Amino acid sequence: MKIVLEHITKRYPNRNKKIGGLVTAVEDFDLTIPDGKLVALLGPSGCGKSTTLNMICGLEDPTEGKIWFGDTDVTRLSPEVRGVGMVFQSYALYPHMTVLQNIMFPLENLKGADKLSRDEMVRRAEHAASLVQISELLERKPSQVSGGQQQRVAIARALVKTPKVLLLDEPLSNLDARLRLTTREEIRRIQRETGITTVFVTHDQEEAMSISDEIVVMENGVIRQVGKPQRVYDEPDNLFVSKFLGTPPINVFEGHVERGQLYIGTERVLDVFQAPDGPVTVGVRPEGFVVDADGPFTCGLVAVERMGRDTSVVATHDALEAVQMRAIVSSDARVDTSASNVRFRLRPEKTRLFDAQTGQRIHFVGETMEEPAEVMAREARAAAGAPKPEAGATA
Amino acid sequence: MNTRSMKGWLYLIPAIAFLGVFVVYPLFDVVVYSFEEGYNSASQTFFGTGTYNFSYVLRDTYFIQALKNTFILVIITVPLSTGLALLISVGLSSIKKLQELYQTIFFLPYVTNTLAVGLVFMILFQKTAYTDGFVNQIIHLFGGSSVDFIDGPYWAKMTVMCIYTVWVVMPFKVLILTSALASVNPDYYKAAKVDGTSSWRIFYKITLPMISPMIFYLIITGFIGAFKAYGDVVAIFGTNLNAAGMNTIVGYVYDMLYGDGGGYPSYASAAALVLFAIVLTITVINLLIQRRSVQTS
After folding, report:
1. Best B184, B187, B188, B195 residue to mutate vs chain A (most A CBs within 10 Å)
2. Residues of A with CB below 8 A from B210's CB?
3. C-alpha distances in angstroms, B26 versus A5, A208, B269?
4. A56, A69 Cβ separation under 8 angstroms
5. Confidence class of residue B229 from pLDDT cuts 50, 70 and 90?
6. Backbone angles phi, psi at A271, to 5 degrees
7. CA-nearest residue of chain A to B194?
8. Is there a contact between B197 and A94 if contact means CB atoms under 8 Å apart?
9. Which of A83, A284, B84, B129 has the fewest CB atoms inside 10 Å of its own CB, making it the most exposed?
10. Chain A residues within 8 A of B201 when measuring between CB atoms
11. How confident is the model at residue A84 (pLDDT cuts 50, 70, 90)?
């Protein structure tokens, strides 16, 4: 089922009555979720992602805008009519019921023509349980199964009515680190097997990047960027997205462009042809640094850390936004650990320029592996306004 | 014994001393008194030991009346007050406007003096040669004839007593149940809503099991509290409860000690032990039922 969110806005009355007025949780949210895809709503807490999920679910009504499931306008429909299954962050498993009773609960609500026989309910519940591989736990109470298993029970309960849309609110946040890895693969597997259009909310960018077909990065109620995870990582539209994605995070410097040259501090560090002159914010991915004794970029050396296959160089620089920067370099790179400085060369395809004021991306020739001609063509297309630019980028 | 636990015991000494002198020793003494026959409180002598005190109390018509009154009070007021409190709490939790105001109103009886409330009830229900109370005026309005609720027939007095008890114990129950309802994770309701659960089914299948430990707590404390009824009865019917036929077990115990026909600590102790046995039995039964039916998470 394709989901279309059409200019969704959600405003709440301010909780603090003294201030009063309205708080905008989600603003002009415009998104199409293709049928059968796994999409992550990603953003820091309070960015409106859970509100958006609740609106897709039908637990909350949008103040403005429309929601379409396929060709049906579901904006004012209640959740059970929409045909959604939802997994809550707390799982919301009824503690006084067994796993089987929990999974059967939605089926028992069916009335009239949809009413099922007891045997049919058990059969469907067992089928849902086998899908998430908890068949042997059916007689237990939720408190008698592990956190990861509770998660699966919650998913089984959401799937038992064969919903058209599956919604998951922070599905992994209550699990320990190791279980998170396996469970997210499990969610991916279940989603592939059932082919149900799935939307999940997370603040963990790694989680979102690892399993989703598409990620939607949100900040303060607006979409910052939508796209395939790797694409959004490589080609962030703005500084916020570039900083939000990636561990270790992108290293951010103040710099300026002068006649096609990028300066950080007084050093001329990179050719950035066609970038306009003026102050810029420079983001360099940790893997964007190459240790080079003749490199143009000098940083104060703090430490060299070797962890498994990665070697990271921890360094400082006056123009750095954070206190320290981290570069992940090839393990055969030679760094003189006794020296006070380390010199780098920057990889252009890992270096991103942003407007110092607005944080919007500034393109330059050579920033992608693409040929310059391709870049020009893409920009020409963008300038012609053919595909819609990612919504909300200006807010 | 190591220093740590020595310290612990040291801190406990004041509490143990007070509890020992004022709770444990009297309890023990009550048992002793109840088996001492013909105890004279003036000379502090007795004839012998045995179970005569118990057989006297159990044959005393005043005690039988008190027992009957107490049981009627318990059986009517505990379910009624708990049920009504549940109804009010659910209502309170589902309204949004002025919720705090209503909560305060429902809590008022809890902070009001029992005797003052008793006086108000007396005025509401009374009937004298000259005036009718508010309740009787209403009865008149519907064409009935007035009843003396305070000094009249037994059932009328019992009705007032039950209404009064329910009214007095309600605020505590409402308070407990509203907080129990508020502590249910709203995700349960959201999940139920996503699955299209009807509100009655949500209440019956989710809310009720979730707050059932609190309901059982209220039932058990309600039983104990109602069995110990005394002050409320005095507030409405005065101190001569035997004459009014409205005595309770605790009232009987008190009368045996200090009432007009008082000065019989042995009979009082025996009656108190009978009450203890009843409350213990009922509480054990309650706990057994609870263990079987209340869902633990």
Report:
1. B195
2. 95-96
3. 74, 68, 10
4. no
5. confident
6. -80, 125
7. A79
8. no
9. B129
10. 109
11. very high
Residues of chain B neighbouring A160 (CB-CB closer than 8 A): none
B190:A84 CB<8 A: no
Tell me, what's the ipTM? 0.79
Structure tokens at B39: 């105890």
Cβ proximity of A326 and A267 under 8 Å: no
In chain A, which residue's Cα lies nearest the Cα of B297? A95
Number of Cβ pairs closer than 8 Å across A and B?
A: 62
pTM beyond 0.80: the answer is: no
Question: Are the Cβ atoms of B196 and A58 closer than 8 angstroms?
Answer: no
pLDDT 10s digits, A258-305: 998 999 988 999 998 888 999 999 999 999 999 988 889 999 999 998
Name residues whose C-beta falls within 8 Å of residue B128's C-beta, 6 or more positions apart in sequence: none
* Facing A88 at nearest CB: one of B191, B201, B205: B191
DSSP letter for each residue of chain B: --HHHHHHHHHHHHHHHHHIIIIIHHHHHHHHHHHEET-BTTTTB-SEESSHHHHHHHH-HHHHHHHHHHHHHHHHHHHHHHHHHHHHHHHHHH--TTHHHHHHHHHHHHHS-HHHHHHHHHHHH-B-SS-B-HHHHHHHHTTPPP--TTTS-HHHHHHHHHHHHHHHHHHHHHHHHHHHHHTS-HHHHHHHHHTT--HHHHIIIIIHHHHHHHHHHHHHHHHHHHHT--HHHHHHH-S-HHHHT---HHHHHHHHHHSTT---HHHHHHHHHHHHHHHHHHHHHHHHHHHHHSPP-
User: B295 to chain A nearest CA, in Å?
Assistant: 5
Judge whether residue A389 has pLDDT over 80. Answer: no
Of B188, B194, B210, the CB nearest to A79: B194
- What angle is formed at CA A281 by the lines to CA A278 and CA A282, rounded to 5 degrees? 115
Instruction: Please indicate if any CB of chain A lies within 8 Å of the CB of B100.
Output: no
pLDDT of residue B261: 62
